[in-house]
Amino acid sequence: MPNAILVLNAGSSSLKFSLFADPPGGPELRLRGQIEGLNGAPHFIARDTAGAILDERRWADGTNLGHDGAAHHLVEFLQGFRDEYQLMAVGHRVVHGGQAFSQPVRVDAEVLAKLEKFVPLAPLHQPHNLAPIRAVAERAPQLPQVACFDTAFHRRQPELAQLFALPSAITERGVRRYGFHGLSYEYIASVLPQLAPEAAAGRVVVAHLGNGASLCAMAAGRSMASTMGFTAVDGLPMGTRCGNIDPGVILYLMDELKMDARAIERLIYKESGLLGVSGISSDMRELLASDAPRAALAVDLFVYRIGRELGSLAAALGGLDALVFTGGIGEHAAVIRARVCRDAAWLGVELDEAANEAGGPRISTASSTVSAWTLATDEELMIARHTRQTISPP
Ligand SMILES: Nc1ncnc2c1ncn2[C@@H]1O[C@H](COP(=O)(O)OP(=O)(O)O)[C@@H](O)[C@H]1O
Ligand SMILES: CC(=O)OP(=O)(O)O
Ligand SMILES: [Mg+2]
């Protein structure tokens, strides 16, 4: 029976999974899938490497399956492969690694206890990242489990990019900018040199636009700045998160509306962003299909904020050589890419409309001084590689 690595990637609206075989040349995908729409219209799909559907299920609109329900369904599906593979490790995406973890780590009880401390810093993710680790540890305590962090890729950012202008006593407690989506950015940094060698060696902004959304400025593949900060609520407006707001708003909510920390947490993580502005949905597909003015307003704000943050990150890099789109929206919503690129004309981005409609990968014209791309991210492959390396270093 061949050895296999199972990878779990719990996002804010989805649970993605992959099974990799373990040949000497590095992890090789065998099957992958996801349960998306966890907060509204859950949809499970699993495919083999050729893209053929192995299994699919839809739940009724409004079903709140949640991450636990998704994990339960996934375990049942994976039971069907018990006799085909020998599981050698499970690799997990863990969104927050704080100051303590700047590379993947094999999880034991001590590590798990440290990771629990970050739950308040990533309430939409960390609990769902850690629950399966605990469940697997209970059922198979000998099975190696590896935590791979969204924050790790950003830990080498210049000091200035990580600092808030707060007194040093607060900074020293770990209150600093971390940045997230690091596994996605690391993957893009690993494939860009083959597609655009010159740009990859230069100044690149990657836009990871999914239910969570952020931008990362990279110089020669190294993270230099990110729109996300101490938590994944900062930066761009997202499906249900507000992105950056004046901290004075929080004080106003406390003083004038008498909201406590939990109520504010709910507001800024779960009731804001595309959902809050539109009053309709957190799902970009629904907003683009709607003719309600508030749906259009939410999309307009999303695009406007990306444009402003893009300018900020280009300034941090001292210019721009390439712009890359990824994540659920970045990979599939040509209209959003087109609008962002048109707004970025001043930076030297010239959109190739036909290439963009066709899905890229290059979506800028040959004469564009800044090249633009759309690439499918692969956080799961990065996790599989890190997991393999962590359980048996070369
Ligand atoms: N064809 C599409 N057009 C527009 N948006 C899409 C499309 N497909 C997926 N999306 C968006 O991508 C989001 C999910 O992105 P993804 O990166 O998978 O999410 P997560 O943050 O949970 O990892 C959905 O909320 C949806 O808005
Ligand atoms: C960090 C984050 O927002 O992740 P996701 O986009 O998967 O929700
Ligand atoms: Mg994601």
Quick summary of this structure?
The chain is an alpha/beta fold and 394 residues long.
Q: What do you see in this structure?
A:
With 394 residues, the chain is α/β, with parallel strands linked by helices. The protein folds into 2 domains: 3-149, Nucleotidyltransferase, domain 5 (2-Layer Sandwich); 197-374, Nucleotidyltransferase, domain 5, CATH 3.30.420. It is built from 16 helices and 13 strands. The strands form 2 sheets. Strands 5-4-3-2-1-6-8-7 form an 8-stranded mixed sheet, sandwiched between helices. β1 and β2 (15-21) form a beta hairpin. α6 packs across α16. The radius of gyration is 21 Å and the shape is globular. The protein starts with a strand and ends with a helix. The model has no long low-confidence stretch (mean pLDDT 96). Acetylphosphate binds at residues 11-12, 95, 125, 150, 180-181, 210-212, 232. Keywords: ATP-binding, Cytoplasm, Kinase, Magnesium, Metal-binding, Nucleotide-binding, Transferase. Belongs to the acetokinase family. Pfam families: Acetate_kinase. InterPro entries: Ac/propionate_kinase, Aliphatic_acid_kin_short-chain, Aliphatic_acid_kinase_CS, ATPase_NBD. Its EC number is 2.7.2.1.
List keywords for this structure.
binds acetylphosphate; Nucleotidyltransferase, domain 5; alpha/beta; globular; 20% strand; 8-stranded mixed β-sheet; 2 domains; magnesium ion binding; binds adenosine-5'-diphosphate; binds magnesium ion; 16 helices; 394 residues
